[in-house]
Design goal:
Length: about 180
Protein backbone atom coordinates (compact mmCIF):
# COMPACT_ATOMS: atom_id res chain seq x y z
CA UNK A 1 0.00 0.00 0.00
CA UNK A 2 1.23 3.53 -0.69
CA UNK A 3 0.60 7.10 0.33
CA UNK A 4 1.93 10.48 -0.72
CA UNK A 5 5.07 11.95 0.80
CA UNK A 6 4.12 14.80 3.11
CA UNK A 7 6.87 16.94 1.58
CA UNK A 8 7.21 16.30 -2.15
CA UNK A 9 3.99 14.39 -2.85
CA UNK A 10 5.76 11.38 -4.36
CA UNK A 11 4.15 8.00 -3.88
CA UNK A 12 5.81 6.15 -1.01
CA UNK A 13 5.23 2.98 0.97
CA UNK A 14 3.15 3.30 4.13
CA UNK A 15 5.86 1.27 5.86
CA UNK A 16 8.70 3.61 4.84
CA UNK A 17 9.99 6.02 7.48
CA UNK A 18 11.41 8.33 4.84
CA UNK A 19 10.46 9.26 1.29
CA UNK A 20 12.60 7.39 -1.20
CA UNK A 21 12.58 10.44 -3.48
CA UNK A 22 13.29 13.47 -1.22
CA UNK A 23 14.41 11.80 2.04
CA UNK A 24 11.79 13.60 4.13
CA UNK A 25 10.39 11.79 7.18
CA UNK A 26 6.84 10.61 6.57
CA UNK A 27 5.49 12.22 9.71
CA UNK A 28 6.69 15.00 11.98
CA UNK A 29 7.99 14.24 15.43
CA UNK A 30 8.98 16.77 18.05
CA UNK A 31 12.26 14.86 18.27
CA UNK A 32 13.15 15.38 14.59
CA UNK A 33 16.07 17.69 13.95
CA UNK A 34 14.78 21.17 13.27
CA UNK A 35 17.71 21.89 10.95
CA UNK A 36 16.34 19.39 8.41
CA UNK A 37 13.12 21.38 8.09
CA UNK A 38 13.88 24.62 6.33
CA UNK A 39 11.01 27.08 6.18
CA UNK A 40 10.51 26.01 2.56
CA UNK A 41 10.11 22.35 3.56
CA UNK A 42 7.77 23.26 6.45
CA UNK A 43 5.67 25.37 4.07
CA UNK A 44 5.57 22.54 1.53
CA UNK A 45 4.50 19.97 4.13
CA UNK A 46 1.95 22.40 5.57
CA UNK A 47 0.47 23.07 2.13
CA UNK A 48 0.39 19.37 1.20
CA UNK A 49 -1.27 18.30 4.45
CA UNK A 50 -3.80 21.14 4.51
CA UNK A 51 -4.93 20.38 0.97
CA UNK A 52 -5.15 16.59 1.30
CA UNK A 53 -8.52 15.01 2.06
CA UNK A 54 -7.13 11.53 2.76
CA UNK A 55 -4.72 12.36 5.59
CA UNK A 56 -4.04 9.44 7.91
CA UNK A 57 -3.43 9.61 11.67
CA UNK A 58 0.27 10.49 11.38
CA UNK A 59 -0.48 13.11 8.72
CA UNK A 60 -3.01 14.80 11.01
CA UNK A 61 -0.62 14.76 13.96
CA UNK A 62 2.05 16.25 11.68
CA UNK A 63 -0.38 18.99 10.70
CA UNK A 64 -1.07 19.68 14.39
CA UNK A 65 2.67 20.02 15.01
CA UNK A 66 2.91 22.49 12.13
CA UNK A 67 -0.01 24.49 13.57
CA UNK A 68 1.83 24.62 16.91
CA UNK A 69 5.08 25.65 15.20
CA UNK A 70 3.21 28.45 13.41
CA UNK A 71 1.36 29.61 16.56
CA UNK A 72 -2.00 28.56 15.10
CA UNK A 73 -3.28 26.83 18.24
CA UNK A 74 -6.89 27.72 17.36
CA UNK A 75 -6.68 25.31 14.41
CA UNK A 76 -5.68 22.39 16.65
CA UNK A 77 -8.82 21.77 18.76
CA UNK A 78 -11.02 20.34 15.99
CA UNK A 79 -8.34 17.94 14.76
CA UNK A 80 -7.54 16.79 18.29
CA UNK A 81 -11.21 16.15 19.04
CA UNK A 82 -11.65 14.20 15.80
CA UNK A 83 -8.58 12.06 16.48
CA UNK A 84 -9.53 11.51 20.15
CA UNK A 85 -12.77 9.89 19.08
CA UNK A 86 -11.05 7.56 16.61
CA UNK A 87 -7.91 6.83 18.67
CA UNK A 88 -8.76 7.19 22.38
CA UNK A 89 -5.75 5.16 23.54
CA UNK A 90 -3.07 6.70 21.36
CA UNK A 91 -0.08 7.67 23.44
CA UNK A 92 1.21 10.01 20.77
CA UNK A 93 -2.13 11.80 20.60
CA UNK A 94 -2.30 12.16 24.39
CA UNK A 95 1.24 13.54 24.34
CA UNK A 96 0.47 16.08 21.59
CA UNK A 97 -2.64 17.21 23.49
CA UNK A 98 -0.50 17.82 26.58
CA UNK A 99 2.07 19.71 24.48
CA UNK A 100 -0.72 21.91 23.12
CA UNK A 101 -1.94 22.62 26.66
CA UNK A 102 1.58 23.50 27.76
CA UNK A 103 2.09 25.79 24.78
CA UNK A 104 -1.21 27.55 25.45
CA UNK A 105 -0.45 28.16 29.13
CA UNK A 106 3.21 28.90 28.46
CA UNK A 107 5.94 27.12 30.37
CA UNK A 108 6.91 30.23 32.31
CA UNK A 109 3.26 31.01 33.19
CA UNK A 110 2.30 27.47 34.16
CA UNK A 111 1.45 26.69 37.75
CA UNK A 112 3.12 23.83 39.60
CA UNK A 113 -0.14 21.84 39.37
CA UNK A 114 -0.29 22.37 35.58
CA UNK A 115 3.29 21.13 35.20
CA UNK A 116 2.51 18.15 37.43
CA UNK A 117 -0.64 17.37 35.39
CA UNK A 118 1.22 17.61 32.08
CA UNK A 119 4.04 15.44 33.38
CA UNK A 120 1.45 12.83 34.44
CA UNK A 121 -0.05 12.93 30.95
CA UNK A 122 3.41 12.37 29.46
CA UNK A 123 3.90 9.37 31.72
CA UNK A 124 0.50 7.96 30.72
CA UNK A 125 1.25 8.58 27.04
CA UNK A 126 4.51 6.65 27.37
CA UNK A 127 2.63 3.72 28.90
CA UNK A 128 0.54 3.51 25.71
CA UNK A 129 3.37 4.14 23.23
CA UNK A 130 7.06 3.93 24.08
CA UNK A 131 8.00 5.03 20.54
CA UNK A 132 7.37 8.63 21.62
CA UNK A 133 10.14 8.49 24.25
CA UNK A 134 12.46 10.93 22.42
CA UNK A 135 9.62 13.43 21.94
CA UNK A 136 8.63 13.19 25.60
CA UNK A 137 12.21 13.55 26.77
CA UNK A 138 12.70 16.63 24.59
CA UNK A 139 9.74 18.41 26.17
CA UNK A 140 10.71 17.24 29.68
CA UNK A 141 14.16 18.76 29.17
CA UNK A 142 12.53 22.02 28.12
CA UNK A 143 10.32 21.99 31.24
CA UNK A 144 13.32 21.19 33.42
CA UNK A 145 15.35 24.06 32.01
CA UNK A 146 12.66 26.67 31.34
CA UNK A 147 10.50 26.04 34.39
CA UNK A 148 12.29 24.32 37.24
CA UNK A 149 15.84 25.58 36.76
CA UNK A 150 14.88 29.04 35.48
CA UNK A 151 12.57 29.61 38.46
CA UNK A 152 14.92 27.89 40.95
CA UNK A 153 12.19 25.40 41.88
CA UNK A 154 13.12 22.03 43.32
CA UNK A 155 12.42 19.32 40.77
CA UNK A 156 9.84 16.78 42.06
CA UNK A 157 10.96 13.19 42.48
CA UNK A 158 8.37 11.88 40.00
CA UNK A 159 9.68 14.27 37.34
CA UNK A 160 13.26 13.17 37.99
CA UNK A 161 12.20 9.50 37.88
CA UNK A 162 10.48 10.02 34.52
CA UNK A 163 13.55 11.69 33.00
CA UNK A 164 15.79 8.99 34.49
CA UNK A 165 13.63 6.32 32.81
CA UNK A 166 14.51 8.02 29.51
CA UNK A 167 18.22 8.46 30.21
CA UNK A 168 19.32 6.25 27.29
CA UNK A 169 17.15 8.13 24.78
CA UNK A 170 19.02 10.56 22.54
CA UNK A 171 17.39 13.89 21.71
CA UNK A 172 18.90 16.22 19.09
CA UNK A 173 19.85 19.62 20.48
CA UNK A 174 17.93 21.32 17.69
CA UNK A 175 14.72 19.28 17.70
CA UNK A 176 11.33 20.67 16.72
CA UNK A 177 10.17 20.67 20.36
CA UNK A 178 12.61 23.49 21.11
CA UNK A 179 11.17 25.46 18.20
CA UNK A 180 7.60 25.11 19.52
CA UNK A 181 8.53 26.48 22.94
CA UNK A 182 10.97 29.22 21.93
Amino acid sequence: MSKKCINCGASTSTKADECEYCGSPQYLSLAHKSSFFSQEIKDSIFHNLQNEDNNDFDDKLSLIILYLLNDLESEVAGLLNELSIKYPKSGRLLFIKAVKDLKLSGIDNASPSEIKNITSKFNLALSFDNEIAAEVKAVLLIIQQSYYEYNSINIPEKFIALINNLIDIDVPEDCLAFEIFK
